[in-house]
Amino acid sequence: MSKIFTPTNQIRLTNVAIVRLKKAGKRFEIACYKNKVLSWRNNSEKDIDEVLQTHTIFTNVSKGQTAKKEELQKAFGAKDDTEICKEILSKGELQVSEKERQSVLDSQLNSIVNSVAALCVNPETRRPYPATIIEKSLKDAHFNVKMNKNTKQNTLEAIKILRDHMPIERSRMKLRVSFAGKEGGGKLKESVVKLANAVEHEEWDESTLHLTLLIDPGQYRVIDELVRNETKGKGLLELLELKEVVESDELF
Predict the structure, then answer these.
(1) Which of 217, 238, 244, 250 suits a disulfide with 128, CB 3.0-4.6 Å?
(2) What is the pLDDT of residues 1-41, one digit of tens each?
(3) 7 in a domain, yes or no?
(4) pTM for the whole thing?
(5) Phi, psi (deg, nearest 5) at residue 232
(6) CA 71, CA 49: separation in Å to the nearest integer?
(7) Side-chain half-sphere of 132: how many Cα atoms within 13 Å?
(8) Residue 67 DSSP one-character state
(9) What is the torsion angle, in degrees rounded to the nearest 10, for the CA atoms of residue 158, residue 163, residue 166 and residue 172?
């Protein structure tokens, strides 16, 4: 485990992940907890204090050398230390060993592959691609994960690259789910709705509930399995249409 001592106040920093940003001709670094940098970039961690070991900005974390106020002001303007740390977190490069880097890249690639598989379809079959096909196509296209970008940004880039190598388009499915109230009722409805992007319509036909949903393609099998299991095969799924998602739409 890496240990860093700052010469001024002798604060011992352990389990350190360093994020570095070069700006205005200077190098700036922050000391973060390992495994938290990517969580911050993916928005799964929103508490900056859970990411930063200290709000101090360094020129060299390992040597405990802190950045001077005039250097910070020249590079970042009137921002306070926390805002500067956030910019470095967002734009900086995570410093890791080759082994750690490969582990992070593999984890990121897996997340990107699953995101693409969940959000896109083969326009010829109107069905999602298996994750294995997405992964192979990305490797064949020499796609590289950018560690200073989050999963959403990398996923958008992956989709653009894949369009030059295979028929693929982003879309959402419009789905009609029907089941009797006694075969799951409120509990099944709640579970199904949580998996959808939106509920377009809801109606009861005697004792049968009909839900019209917009879902990401990758959720189709999940909902299908859920309804079949909870209704013992009596529920019904109907694919009504596929709605193309334009690039300005929200991805997640």
Answers:
(1) 217
(2) 444 544 444 445 666 889 999 999 999 999 999 778 888 88
(3) no
(4) 0.53
(5) 55, 40
(6) 24
(7) 0
(8) P
(9) 80
